[in-house]
Design brief:
single chain, 419 residues, mainly alpha, 2 domains, globular
Length: 419
């Protein structure tokens, strides 16, 4: 009993309060997103907001269970947890149900569970365990290979499930790796690849490959007879050309039609507002119609009449923008920013490398979700179908984010117990 008392005494109350505010705001917005005159009672469990309340209560139970577990458990069992969820990702492809062309859900009665959501915290634990070992240095090639394997294994399996959005989230972990000593050159390389990727989609591949050839020809002229630099440039040149060709091939031969349509809409290549561009256009209308102060709670017309598809899940931010306006949207974004800053500060004060690394994994994953989800509703990023943490409807996302966050809250509380 004394142990339990200490657990709750040392938790970071600011983080917990932010979590509760965001979850409550998310529940109210789900209620607003699906509200109609026939179902006004907010505790109607036949509706999405009623089911979300059940998931919220279960999430609170999960949080309490996590806080009651010994802090050493998560480091001691990080690898078994990782293996367990890797197996679940494989199993769901065999016995799972298909939703929106993605076989990534277990069907349990009326409820669905998505293992890809939970694999995020499992991967974070495995990375924290490996990178916190005494003889592990991020500068070593062996370490880079093992880290890449830990991250890319779930990514590869999730891609096989045809769930590109969930797979992309794992690449946010590069921010944690940068904090742990990964060279900034990798971030620059990543940025260059993103630019090349976009250019490959906008410009004809042969024109782009020709332009890149001219740039490298000028670089070859500058290095002249320096053999090492020439070999390096030749290698980079070949990789760049291969990347451009690969992106073009992937776009034309690999991506499905709906994925290409989303990219075309974002890049302005397809402006069919009744077809591929409908979701994004309606999303912008809903957010813009909110103005400065919003239309008021339950008064959003775009939301009420279902103009925005998936408005309680991936496009939940539209409800915030329409009913709460610019001011309300800014407040919600500010709450997320405060949470991220708090998590980074908590990570920096950790006494163990395991807790610090895991904390940065949590912050990186949440940052990616928040940025991409809000960005895609206003047209800054393609619609890739990832939830807004603590807001989007669904038990899997809420439970996974709760577990992800409260493991770190527990690790931080455990740090205080050892003082």
């Amino acid at each position: 009993m004394r142990e339990t008392k200490h657990i709750f005494e040392h938790i970071d109350r600011v983080t917990v309060v932010l979590y509760l505010i965001l979850v409550l705001a998310g529940w109210l917005n789900i209620y607003a997103a699906v509200y109609n005159d026939e179902h006004r009672f907010i505790f109607d469990f036949s509706q999405k907001y009623g089911k979300q309340m059940i998931w919220i209560l279960c999430a609170f139970v999960l949080a309490i269970i996590i806080l009651a577990i010994d802090g050493k458990f998560f480091s001691a069992f990080s690898y078994p947890i990782y293996v367990l969820f890797i197996l679940s990702l494989i199993l769901v492809m065999l016995v799972g149900v298909e939703v929106n062309a993605s076989r990534s859900w277990f069907q349990i009665g009326e409820f669905r569970i998505q293992p890809a959501e939970f694999a995020k915290f499992a991967t974070s634990l495995a990375l924290a365990n490996y990178l916190s070992q005494v003889n592990t240095k991020i500068e070593d090639l062996k370490t880079k290979i093992i880290v890449a394997f830990i991250i890319l294994l779930p990514v590869g399996i999730i891609l096989l499930q045809n769930d590109t959005g969930s797979a992309l989230v794992y690449f946010a972990l590069i921010f944690m790796l940068y904090r742990e000593g990964l060279s900034g050159n990798w971030l620059i390389i990543g940025l260059v690849l993103i630019v090349l990727f976009l250019l490959s989609l906008i410009i004809n591949k042969y024109y782009l490959m020709g332009a890149v050839t001219l740039v490298f020809a000028f670089l070859f002229y500058l290095v002249k007879k320096r053999r090492r630099e020439i070999i390096t440039l030749i290698s980079i040149f070949l990789l760049t050309q291969g990347f451009i060709f690969g992106v073009s091939y992937m776009y034309t031969k690999v991506l499905q039609s709906h994925q290409k349509e989303r990219i075309d809409v974002l890049l302005g290549k397809d402006v069919d507002l009744k077809g591929p561009g409908y979701n994004l256009n309606q999303s912008k209308i809903a957010i813009g119609s909110g103005g400065l102060w919003g239309k008021g709670f339950l008064k959003g017309t775009q939301t009420k009449f279902d103009f925005v598809p998936e408005q309680s899940t991936d496009f939940i931010f539209c409800t915030i923008g329409e009913e709460w306006g610019f001011v309300g949207s800014t407040i919600i974004i500010a709450l997320f920013v405060v949470l991220l800053i708090r998590l980074i500060n908590m990570a920096e004060r950790q006494r163990s490398a395991f807790s610090r690394i895991y904390g940065y994994c949590v912050a990186s994953i949440l940052f990616f979700h928040i940025t991409i989800n809000i960005g895609m509703t206003i047209g800054l990023f393609p619609v890739i179908g990832i939830p807004l943490p603590f807001f989007s409807y669904g038990g899997s996302s809420l439970w996974s984010f709760t577990i992800l966050l409260f493991i770190f809250v527990k690790l931080d509380a455990y740090r205080m117990q050892l003082l």
